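Field reference: sequence -> structure
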Amino acid sequence: MNFHSGFSAKRLRPLAILALFGLAIAGCNVDLGGEEKYPVPRQPGDQGPVYSDAERGSVFGEGGLFGATGPSKEDGATGGIGVNNLLWRASLDTVSFMPLVSADPFGGVIITDWYTPPQTPDERFKVNVYILGRALRADGIRASVFRQQNQGGQWVDAPVALNTSTDLENAILTKARELRQASKQ
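Structure field:
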């Protein structure tokens, strides 16, 4: 019995062309109609993205992916972002004096650009903040601090004090607790 008797190149060629055509069309930006929703400017006191019409629904239903069994709203867990809302807001507030390179609320990563304090123009700092979960816990946040010194016009990596990352994490946790207390009142 010949294994290839049912499959011939002539039969597979149209299927291959159709598959390639389908992939090419799928990669195109096709307007399917509907109304586009653009973010509107934030107002003082807004806590998340604001859209021009009613609040957007969730693919996972009213309770979101975690439903009633997930982390509680009291701990700052929300369906809008992938990490703890209070830790996210506290992190952004704490590093707000530094320019941001990237802020990913779904992955819980904040990366700042280099910041040179006015008091010490020959050194600069960079911070990466990682929010590790949806619960407001001390082990839910990690910070990495990088330092460079200017030596003859060249920026050279320099050591950071051992407690700098821990102090930054503690400042973020303190701010998150303050935000939680303010939301209960």
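Note: The first strand starts at residue 100 and ends at 104.
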